[in-house]
TrEMBL record:
<keyword id="KW-0479">Metal-binding</keyword>
<feature type="domain" description="Alcohol dehydrogenase-like N-terminal">
    <location>
        <begin position="27"/>
        <end position="132"/>
    </location>
</feature>
<dbReference type="GO" id="GO:0050009">
    <property type="term" value="F:isopropanol dehydrogenase (NADP+) activity"/>
</dbReference>
<feature type="domain" description="Alcohol dehydrogenase-like C-terminal">
    <location>
        <begin position="180"/>
        <end position="280"/>
    </location>
</feature>
<dbReference type="Pfam" id="PF08240">
    <property type="entry name" value="ADH_N"/>
</dbReference>
<keyword id="KW-0862">Zinc</keyword>
<dbReference type="InterPro" id="IPR013149">
    <property type="entry name" value="ADH-like_C"/>
</dbReference>
<dbReference type="InterPro" id="IPR013154">
    <property type="entry name" value="ADH-like_N"/>
</dbReference>
<dbReference type="InterPro" id="IPR036291">
    <property type="entry name" value="NAD(P)-bd_dom_sf"/>
</dbReference>
<protein>
    <submittedName>
        <fullName>NADP-dependent isopropanol dehydrogenase</fullName>
        <ecNumber>1.1.1.80</ecNumber>
    </submittedName>
</protein>
<dbReference type="Pfam" id="PF00107">
    <property type="entry name" value="ADH_zinc_N"/>
</dbReference>
<keyword id="KW-0560">Oxidoreductase</keyword>
<dbReference type="InterPro" id="IPR002328">
    <property type="entry name" value="ADH_Zn_CS"/>
</dbReference>
<dbReference type="InterPro" id="IPR011032">
    <property type="entry name" value="GroES-like_sf"/>
</dbReference>
<comment type="similarity">
    <text>Belongs to the zinc-containing alcohol dehydrogenase family.</text>
</comment>
<dbReference type="GO" id="GO:0008270">
    <property type="term" value="F:zinc ion binding"/>
</dbReference>
Length: 354
């Protein structure tokens, strides 16, 4: 009889529960990781509400680190007992889309997103990792699990937003929404050489963190019109790049409107509602403004993850201020509820496993 483990599952749309599941077994190319730390993401809230359709007893969670418990016979470069981080996106690195350079779209659109989508996630005592040689990443000894877990999604997604924004060296960039992804996009923009970094949000604590993470100017959209302020800051021409980090019609439109002709709108947000997203026609130059809209999904793989962990190790970024709450695994349902309501000043809850 298979050993059992505790898992936190989506029973159906809007319904969660703890349940016992068999500890997974690895295939030849796979690994099983014993979870030590995880993070709860607003994406988990979207999933629970049905943004990607109904799921039955699917284990939630996609940001976790842990210790290798079992390895498949063909996995190289790791051993049982290694501390490892696993990106939220776990491509095969072999299909056509992966070979074309779009690993997050592994096999099909969004196909690299497997955890809590097409397979059990990692809100469980153990989780399965496909294609482990490419998707496990060793955690340097100087980095705690509490910090390393941020490389799994927040750093990779936020930095992707900045990378896709095509920010000229010394150029101007605005980041709409200063949640965890937006704050990491702010760091990324600064690291990529932006000359003026503008952070937009409506929560004072987040705007304070925005300045901490590298924003030169912050705009509280509850007090000022962001577009008016952006035009003032840029001498009336608009920004070179705008990064959308919320996944809402309003922030997307603001990005298009704030960007100068030939600029780039980089979308890192998760649009979890509605059937379409509208582009403001006039500010889009009626389709002829040379503005680029670039989308993407959190890049994975151990090369990417090693670079992110290297940035942490060398002090280029310290994501620890993002952790506003800590929960035992037994209380992950409470953490998920807070991420939905955004009560108590929550930014990112860290889940601690025994």
């Amino acid at each position: 009889m298979a050993d059992l483990m505790k898992a936190f599952v989506m029973e159906g749309i809007g319904k969660t529960a703890f349940m016992d599941k068999p500890v997974p077994e690895p295939g030849p190319n796979d690994a099983i990781v014993k979870t030590t730390r995880a993070l709860v993401c607003t994406s988990d809230v979207h999933t629970l509400k049905g943004a990607i359709g109904d799921r039955s007893n699917l284990t939630l969670g996609h940001e976790a680190v842990g210790v290798v418990a079992k390895l498949g016979s063909e996995v190289r470069g790791f051993k049982e007992g290694d501390r490892v981080a696993v990106n939220a996106i776990t491509p095969c690195f072999q299909c056509q889309n992966c070979q074309r350079g779009y690993t997050s779209q592994c096999d099909t659109m969004l196909g690299g997103w497997k955890f809590a989508n097409t397979k059990d996630g990692n809100f469980a005592e153990y989780f399965h990792v496909n294609d482990a040689s490419a998707n496990l990443t060793s955690i340097p000894g100087s980095i705690s699990d509490d910090i390393a877990v941020y490389a799994c999604d927040m750093l990779s997604t936020g930095f992707m937003g900045a990378e896709h924004a095509n920010i000229p060296l010394g150029g101007t960039v605005v980041i709409f929404a200063q949640g965890p992804v937006g704050l990491m996009a702010t760091v990324g923009a600064r690291l990529l050489g932006a000359g003026l970094v503008i952070g937009v949000d409506g929560v004072a604590a987040r705007l304070s963190l925005s300045r901490h993470f590298g924003a030169d100017v912050t705009i509280d959209f509850t007090q000022q019109d962001p577009l008016e302020e952006i035009l003032k800051l840029t001498g009336g021409v608009g920004v070179d790049s705008a990064i959308e980090c919320l996944g809402s019609q309003a922030t997307f439109e603001s990005c298009v409107k704030a960007t100068r002709p030939g600029g780039t709108i980089s979308v890192a947000g998760y649009f979890g509602h509605g059937d379409s997203v509208e582009i403001p026609r006039v500010e889009w130059g009626v389709g002829m403004s040379d503005k680029v809209i670039r989308t993407g999904l959190c890049p994975g793989g151990n090369v990417r993850m090693s670079r992110l962990l290297g940035l942490i190790e060398r002090g280029r970024v310290d994501p620890s201020p993002l952790t506003t709450h800590r929960f035992a695994f037994d209380d992950v349902d409470k953490a998920l509820h807070l991420m939905e309501t955004k009560e108590d000043g929550i930014l990112k809850p860290l889940v601690v496993f025994k």
